[in-house]
Design a protein that fits this description.
The complex is a heterodimer. Chain A is of the alpha+beta class. Chain A is built from 16 helices and 15 strands. Among the domains of chain A are: about 280 residues, no CATH class; about 40 residues, no CATH class. Helix content of chain A is about 30%, strand content about 15%. In chain A, strands 5, 6, 7, 8, 9, 11, 13, 14 and 15 form a 9-stranded mixed beta sheet that branches. Chain B is mostly helical. Chain B has a domain of about 150 residues. Chain B has a two-stranded antiparallel ribbon. In chain B, helix 1 packs antiparallel against helix 2, helix 1 crosses helix 5 and helix 4 packs antiparallel against helix 5. The radius of gyration of chain B is 21 Å and the shape is elongated. Chain B starts with a strand and ends with a helix. The chains are: A alpha+beta, B mainly alpha. At the A-B interface, helix 1 and helix 16 of A face helix 1, helix 2 and helix 5 of B.
Chain lengths: ~525, ~220
């Protein structure tokens, strides 16, 4: 009987051991193999535009090309004209504001601050030609710039400060012949240079992504699957999925990792469970700005210094500007560990003309909403860009300065270097009051980091977050209990005191026992 | 009263005891790595091993419950206040005077009243607390979307703190236990008994054994 019990017990334990170990096998999930296969196939174009007769004419300007495009693609103009790339704004419902058309026209950032009055310069990144301050452009379909997105020669570039016109030396015929789906170079020519230079804004989007290695981005690596932007930013009728939270409030039309990878991509259940509260990006993007530096801090208050009456610049050892007379002082960083925030997909924005209630602490220009207690929130990695930018301390609002102008004397800061004039003209053009006083306020912008995904071998390991170390990745997110990081101090202290007392009790008891035993023995012997 | 070598701990009981000892040590070690107190396996491996050992421990508990119920050994753990003062007196004072143990150890009554209370507490409070909070720790989901709202536990903290308290209680028990097993006839006699199953006991006369049996039956019927 006893033997049987023993055998049953042993057998049971061996079974449990086997289940435990065998269920933890590391293997590549089927889904990932399928994805690799799918995206490794590079299809050939279905259409060769160079054979179309309408493109056999000599193009002298981009509008002629657009006309030729529209002669076949005759139902696409309205799609483009409904897109964010064209309108520079989206219809958003914002709690407390109602329906807002949120975009470059009314939002301010803490880089070049705002587009108003500076359209000529900003329009370098608009999918239109001949940007008109009065807004006429937005109604005229002949202004659509097809080539900026569909050029597959990689040569199309817009001219600086020419309101969206391309540089004049381009071979438009060659470009038109090459037409196809947008490639990384089409998207990158604008999105890698936002904020006035390479990798200034995003931190995870920069010119190294034109031809990245797998090391920089596991999806886009030319030595790997070599995916294009539009593989994830799926596009239907010129409406591109995936949008950025510096300029959008509602949680819709997004591109998620889960769209391809599912919400249970790991073989290990414990890792899959993390997806309830942790975004994929958090573990799979350990650092951003992997190749070139990104701007972390921008101090407008030092702008305007001149040497011999001329603007000048200073650089660090990597060639990053640390000072520009027109923009102020900067700090840059490379291989940056992201800041982590709770984020449920919605954000609120500081809009031009909003009153700042509290000027004693940094003003957050795009507040990402979320908390542990919110069911929809997950932990996301972000880049926080900090700036000191001009504001009106009397009216308590951020100043939209006039920055760009072709000539001196129109009040543009980049020509005249006079904050007072730039503020006066800029605020007047924006239809906002200006008290005549200028101060500088610290502001923060949150940029969720979604690109520069590392291979799984380089993803975060558990103890980067599950640690008591102050350098732990999540050491600042304290609104929840994290195993390995948190403990109840009262319980731990109480327990340790209890264990020490028990130990001391045992030691004392054993010493007295030992001594009394010797004494008793002695008595016995003596007796 | 004569001394006689008695088979007091049957095979399964010894197997259960030692398996439990190994598992509790292993669980404590990996558990305190998860707690952040020590670093050895690395967090991920510690969690993995802790979970495997937890399932083994659960399996062992199920076998042990079955064994206790079918053999009637569960009656050994019914707490009693009888002679508890004597037992306390013994550990605090009489032990230093080389006095004999106040409780007679027999096959049908292996435990002294203090042991009965402590082991009963372990079985009914500490182990269940550890197991329940451990299972919640493993299977807790937040947010438990589409689940039952009423059991949507909002924070792991409650679960984790209870699990930690249970762990500390077990550790302090083990410390005491390790010391008190040295208070047998000789320092190692209790340990030897748990290893071999045999212990040299004072064999009482027939009468007394019968009394004990009657007493056990009466208690069982209550």
């Amino acid at each position: 009987m006893k033997k049987i019990f023993l055998i049953i017990a042993l057998f049971g334990l061996v079974t449990l051991l086997a289940i435990g170990f065998l269920s933890q096998k590391d293997y590549e999930p089927d889904n990932q193999m399928k994805l690799k296969e799918k995206y490794s196939k590079k299809g050939k174009k279905a259409v060769d535009h160079s054979q179309f007769s309408v493109l056999q004419q000599d193009f002298n300007n981009p509008k002629q090309v657009t006309q030729a495009c529209v002669s076949c693609h005759n139902m696409t103009a309205h799609q483009v004209m409904n897109s964010n790339h064209w309108n520079w704004e989206r219809e958003e419902y914002v709690e407390g504001r109602g329906i807002v058309y949120l975009g470059k026209k009314n939002a301010l950032n803490n880089f070049c601050i705002g587009s108003h009055g500076n359209e000529q310069s900003c329009a370098k990144c608009h999918v239109g030609l001949g940007y008109d301050e009065n807004g006429k452009l937005f109604a005229d379909s002949s202004n659509i710039d097809c080539m900026v997105c569909h050029d597959n020669t990689g040569t199309y570039v817009k001219a600086t400060e020419k309101a969206g016109e391309p540089v004049s030396t381009l071979n438009f015929n060659e470009i038109a012949f090459s037409s196809g789906k947008p490639t990384r170079s089409n998207c990158g020519v604008c999105h890698f240079y936002g904020g006035g230079g390479n990798n200034v804004k995003h931190g995870d989007l920069e010119e190294a992504m034109f031809e990245p290695t797998k090391e920089i981005d596991v999806h886009m690596g030319t030595d790997g699957v070599n995916m294009q932007c539009v593989a994830c930013h799926k596009t239907e009728q010129h409406n591109i999925a995936g949008k950025l939270y510096s300029l959008s409030s509602m949680n819709r039309n997004r591109a998620y990792c889960e769209d391809c990878h599912t919400s249970t991509p790991h073989a290990d259940d414990i890792l899959n469970e993390h997806n309830l509260k942790v975004a994929c990006q958090t573990c799979h993007i350990p650092t951003y700005a992997k190749a070139n530096s990104t701007k972390m801090y921008w101090d407008w208050s030092t702008a305007g210094k001149l040497k011999n009456g001329e603007p000048y610049h200073e650089e660090d050892s990597l060639g990053n500007h640390t000072y520009l007379s027109i923009k102020g002082s900067f700090e840059w960083d490379r291989n940056v560990k992201p800041d982590y925030v709770w984020f449920n997909g919605t954000a609120s924005h500081y809009l031009k003309g909003d009153i700042i209630n509290d000027t004693t602490k940094p003003l957050i220009l795009n507040k990402l909403h979320g908390s542990y207690a919110d069911d929809e929130s997950k932990i996301y990695p972000t880049k926080i860009h900090v700036a000191k930018q001009p504001y009106d301390p009397i009216n308590k609002m951020l100043i939209q300065p006039k920055l760009f102008s072709e000539k001196k004397g129109e009040g543009a800061f980049w020509k005249d270097f006079d904050w007072y004039k730039a503020a006066e003209v800029g605020m007047k053009e924006s239809g906002l009051p200006f008290s005549g006083k200028i101060s500088f306020l610290e502001t923060e912008m949150y940029w969720p980091v979604n690109h520069m995904v590392s291979s799984k071998e380089n993803a975060l390991s558990c103890n980067e977050c599950h640690t008591r170390s102050e350098n732990g990745r999540l050491s600042k997110l304290t609104d929840f209990y994290l195993p390995g990081r948190d403990y109840n101090a009262a319980v731990d202290t109480g327990a340790i005191i209890m264990l020490i007392l028990s130990f001391l009790g045992i030691v004392t008891h054993s010493i007295v026992r030992f001594l009394s035993k010797r004494k008793n023995k002695g008595e016995v012997n003596n007796g | 009263m004569a001394k006689k070598l008695v088979y007091i701990y049957p095979g399964f009981e010894r197997f259960w005891h030692w398996m439990q000892a190994i598992l509790i040590f292993f669980l404590a070690f990996t558990g305190f790595e998860i707690h952040g107190s020590v670093e050895f396996f690395g967090f991920r491996e510690a969690v993995r091993y802790h979970n495997i050992a937890a399932y083994m421990f659960l399996g062992l508990i199920i076998f042990a419950i079955f064994w206790h119920l079918t053999t009637g050994q569960w009656k050994q753990y019914i707490p009693t206040f009888e002679n508890i003062k004597g037992q306390l007196n013994y550990y605090l004072f009489d032990i230093f005077k080389n006095a004999p143990h106040p409780t007679k150890k027999t096959v049908i009554s292996k435990l002294n009243p203090l042991q009965k209370i402590v082991y009963f507490g372990l079985k009914i409070l500490v182990i269940p607390m550890s197991v329940t909070s451990g299972l919640l720790y493993m299977f807790y989901r937040y947010p438990s979307k589409y689940g039952v709202e009423a059991i949507n536990i909002q924070s792991l903290e409650f679960i984790a703190v209870f699990h930690t308290i249970a762990a500390f209680l077990l550790i302090s028990f083990i410390m005491m236990h390790l010391y008190l097993i040295t208070t047998g006839e000789t320092i190692t006699s209790n340990l030897q008994a748990m290893l071999t199953g045999y212990e040299e006991l004072d064999v009482a006369d027939e009468e007394k054994t019968e009394t004990n049996q009657v007493q056990l039956k009466v208690e069982a019927n209550k």
